[in-house]
């Protein structure tokens, strides 16, 4: 069994929703539908004068009464807040029963339908983190108040990473109390055969943080994926040792997640007689171009286009980016390479080849609507840059100083996507993007390009340079047969095999490649 850093942590115990997967919106939609149907019928029938029958708020009410709590406890807590008192009912109740049990069952029925339609969204930073924990022999557990915990883990294909799962099924058999009681977490540490003083808890809910604190765990981490300052303060107030927006930021990760420098490992990447085997993939922002305040002013490093051109004479090359096709082609002026633009939703290349994901194309009118409404709502915010792409909408807030303005942007985008489930939002480095909610990413785009070119990825493995969250999708796809290289100025958990410190280092590596191809080995 390994351990992590100076805190001597021997295991991690994770909450599920909001930490490993993003299903908050799915739960909130199901709760909203169920409660609003109930409240509407309640308004139209005799009821007590002091009952509060306003619509359910999927943000405020969800976080305060439901997030992280067992389902029936959540039903009971919300109704009590509205001065509504129902019979408890029994486990034999069906979804038509006007009881705590009946309402909880109806919510779960709605949730399972939404989950089947939309699927759970795996948080890529979290997946990278648990992958590294597994690689280093660190045991892990999942604690969840969701009856669907095992289903979600299976659907997200991460169930095999966890030695212990404590869910309501286990809790019922062992008479465990739900959060904010520490029972679930203490049971996880017992099943891992470790004391709480040897384990870390990772949670995103207030009830979960309280549980970890009451259980006297060594470290209690709060996750605040939307970087909301109000949420950050509340998580700290109830006892989080550290609040992070991503598991990448957990301090212990830096002790064991160092990646080797790709330049010093050049001979391992390019052994003799392997000059033309790779398929070269290059991200743009943060990889070929430094990150800048105004994305419209981003430019590739001087001389890097020429190096890519030289490489393209020896192996196939694809620029894979969140930028639009026309924009990236103009920036690089490399007609002989392929382009996977808009995070891979659009692919173009030599001989007039062009591919668009049809399902994404069908959502362009909805993206037009999002642009119109959100520009009207958020346009007055000073220094917000709104970038329309063919298959997406990006909100750049790097130049905004006000945390309140950033919170307003996040809330407006989240509300719009909540109302339009065909779209999803994704946070990057000082940017939030709205994209089609489809099973498609840079990893899927890479496989599509291999198929189009009739190449075998194991015979022509990808050599991929990328710096961001969307690149981790590609790293995950190729982790068993490719060479993913992280381009980052900071060390962080990643599925990459090697590391380079940003665009300048990548330029040096590309120069080494060109020298190698041209037989000038003295500079390699």
Please name the defining characteristics of this protein.
524 residues; alpha/beta; eight-stranded mixed β-sheet; six-stranded parallel β-sheet; 19 helices
Would you kindly provide a written description of the structure presented here, covering whatever features stand out?
This protein has 524 residues and is an alpha/beta fold. It has 19 helices and 20 strands. Strands 13-12-11-10-9-18-19-20 form an eight-stranded mixed sheet, with helices on both faces. Strands 5-4-1-6-7-8 form a six-stranded parallel sheet. A four-stranded antiparallel sheet has the order 14-15-17-16, with helices on one face. α1 crosses α4, α3 packs across α4 (100-118) and α15 runs antiparallel to α16 (403-419). Mean pLDDT is 88; it is low at 252-257.
Sum this structure up briefly.
With 524 residues, the protein is α/β, with parallel strands linked by helices. The protein has helices at residues 24-43, 60-66, 71-81, 100-118, 124-135, 149-155, 168-174, 183-191, 206-214, 229-237, 266-269, 304-312, 325-332, 358-361, 364-378, 403-419, 442-452, 469-478, 502-517; strands spanning 11-15, 21-22, 121-122, 140-143, 164-166, 199-203, 219-223, 242-244, 279-282, 317-320, 338-341, 346-348, 354-356, 385-389, 392-396, 423-428, 431-436, 462-466, 483-487, 498-500. The strands form four sheets. It has an eight-stranded mixed β-sheet, sandwiched between helices. It has a six-stranded parallel β-sheet with strand order 5-4-1-6-7-8. Strands 14-15-17-16 form a four-stranded antiparallel β-sheet, with helices on one face.
């Amino acid at each position: 069994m390994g351990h992590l850093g100076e805190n001597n942590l021997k295991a991690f115990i994770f909450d599920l929703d909001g930490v490993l997967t993003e299903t908050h919106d799915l739960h909130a939609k199901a709760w909203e539908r169920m409660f609003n149907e109930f409240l509407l019928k309640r308004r139209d029938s005799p009821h007590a004068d002091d009952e509060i029958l306003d619509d359910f708020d999927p943000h405020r009410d969800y976080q305060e009464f439901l997030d992280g709590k067992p389902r029936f406890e959540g039903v009971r807590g919300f109704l009590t807040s509205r001065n509504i008192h129902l019979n408890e009912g029994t486990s034999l109740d069906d979804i038509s029963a006007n009881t705590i049990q009946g309402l909880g069952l109806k919510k779960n029925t709605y949730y399972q339908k939404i989950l089947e339609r939309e699927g759970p969204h795996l948080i890529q930073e979290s997946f990278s983190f648990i992958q590294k924990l597994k690689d280093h022999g660190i045991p892990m557990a999942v604690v969840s108040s969701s009856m669907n915990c095992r289903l979600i883990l299976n659907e997200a294909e991460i169930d095999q990473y966890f030695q212990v799962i404590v869910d309501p099924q286990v809790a019922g058999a062992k008479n465990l109390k739900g959060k904010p009681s520490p029972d679930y977490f203490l049971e996880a540490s017992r099943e891992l055969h470790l004391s709480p003083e040897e384990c870390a808890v990772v949670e995103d809910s207030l009830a979960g943080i309280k549980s970890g604190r009451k259980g006297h765990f060594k470290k209690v981490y709060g996750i605040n994926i939307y970087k909301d300052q109000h949420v950050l303060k509340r998580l700290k107030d109830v006892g989080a040792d550290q609040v992070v927006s991503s598991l990448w930021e957990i301090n212990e990760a830096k002790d064991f997640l160092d990646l080797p420098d790709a330049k010093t490992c050049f001979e391992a990447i390019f052994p003799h007689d392997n000059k033309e085997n790779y398929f070269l993939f290059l991200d743009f922002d943060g990889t070929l171009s430094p990150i800048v305040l105004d994305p419209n002013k981003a430019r590739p490093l001087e001389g890097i286009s020429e190096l890519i051109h030289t490489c393209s004479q020896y192996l196939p090359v694809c620029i894979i980016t969140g930028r639009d096709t026309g924009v990236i082609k103009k920036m690089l002026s490399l007609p002989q390479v392929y382009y996977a633009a808009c995070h891979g939703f659009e692919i173009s290349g030599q001989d007039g080849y062009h591919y668009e994901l049809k399902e994404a194309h069908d959502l362009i009118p909805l993206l037009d609507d999002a642009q119109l409404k959100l520009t009207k709502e958020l346009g007055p915010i000073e220094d917000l840059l709104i970038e329309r792409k063919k298959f997406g909408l990006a909100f750049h807030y790097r130049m905004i100083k006000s945390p309140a303005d950033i919170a307003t942007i996040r809330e407006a985008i989240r509300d719009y996507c909540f109302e339009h489930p065909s779209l999803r939002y994704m946070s990057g480095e000082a940017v939030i993007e709205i994209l089609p909610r489809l099973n498609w990413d840079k990893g899927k785009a890479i496989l599509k390009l291999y198929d189009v070119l009739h190449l075998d990825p194991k015979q022509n493995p990808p050599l991929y340079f990328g710096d961001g969250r969307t690149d981790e999708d590609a790293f995950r796809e190729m982790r068993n047969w490719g060479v993913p290289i992280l381009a980052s100025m900071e060390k962080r958990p990643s599925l990459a095999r090697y590391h380079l410190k940003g665009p300048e280092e990548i330029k040096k590596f590309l120069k080494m490649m060109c020298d190698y191809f041209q037989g000038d080995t003295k500079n390699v």
